[in-house]
Write a structure and sequence with these properties.
With 195 residues, the chain is an alpha/beta fold. The chain has 6 helices and 7 strands; from the N terminus they run βαβαβαβαβαββα. Helix 1 packs across helix 6. The two termini are 12 Å apart. The structure holds 5-O-phosphono-beta-D-ribofuranosylamine. The site of 5-O-phosphono-beta-D-ribofuranosylamine (GRF) has 14 residues, from helix 1, strand 5 and helix 6.
Length: 195
């Protein structure tokens, strides 16, 4: 194992609870990584305060100040590149990314999606799982490819869907698993020397 820790940049848009789970895994020694920066596309993302408190470099690139998706993604890629990360982690980052951006970070860009991919790509996954009568649901960490929620799965976590579940109760059950899953998936990449 090399002495240099893999460097990670985490992208968020809001609450940042998955980002927090990765920071906690670093803090407790489960993940031997350096967190180079947490970047948000929204100035009001709650997760930024937590990252600041943890002494992590934070940065806002507000997508509303750009006139096109391409120009935002270019600025975002440039900012990420300035940290020279081994891995870019999308943690509740609510932006569709251009093919150019995804290809620029090919093989080192990962996302967490709240469904058992390839089921329920896109939004409202929990409600759709309930409506489809699924008995099992969960979350997936996957490599990002240009097609939305489509890249190879690295690791999944499964939960039961209960007969009295609401969207909120199912989301909460999945989220508990997400917080174990994301650090475990990053560890898997490191252990397999993929980053
Ligand atoms: C999570 O459910 C994640 O799977 C999805 O967006 C949500 C982000 O939550 N992509 P948080 O900001 O990490 O708390």
């Amino acid at each position: 194992m090399s002495d240099v820790k893999p460097s990670v940049v985490i992208l968020i848009s809001g609450r940042g609870s998955n980002m927090k789970s990765i920071v906690e895994a670093r803090n407790n020694g489960e993940l031997d990584i350096e967190i180079a920066a947490v970047i948000s596309n929204r100035p009001d993302a709650a997760g930024l305060d937590y990252a600041d408190e943890q002494g992590i470099t934070t940065c806002v690139i507000d997508h509303k100040t750009f006139d096109s998706r391409e120009s935002f993604d270019e600025a975002l890629a440039e900012q990420i590149d300035s940290y020279t990360p081994n891995l870019v982690v999308l943690a509740g980052f609510m932006r569709i990314l251009t093919t150019e951006f995804v290809e620029h970070f090919s093989q080192r860009l990962i996302n967490i999606h709240p469904s058992l991919l390839p089921k329920f790509k896109g939004l409202h996954t929990h409600q759709r799982a309930i409506e489809a009568g699924e008995t099992e649901h969960g979350a997936s960490v996957h490599l990002v490819t240009p097609e939305l929620d489509d890249g190879p799965v690295i690791l999944q976590a499964r939960v039961p869907v209960l007969s009295d579940d609401t969207e909120a109760s199912l989301a909460a059950r999945v989220l508990v698993q997400e917080h174990q899953l994301y650090p475990a998936a990053i560890k898997k990449l490191i252990d397999n020397q993929l980053i």
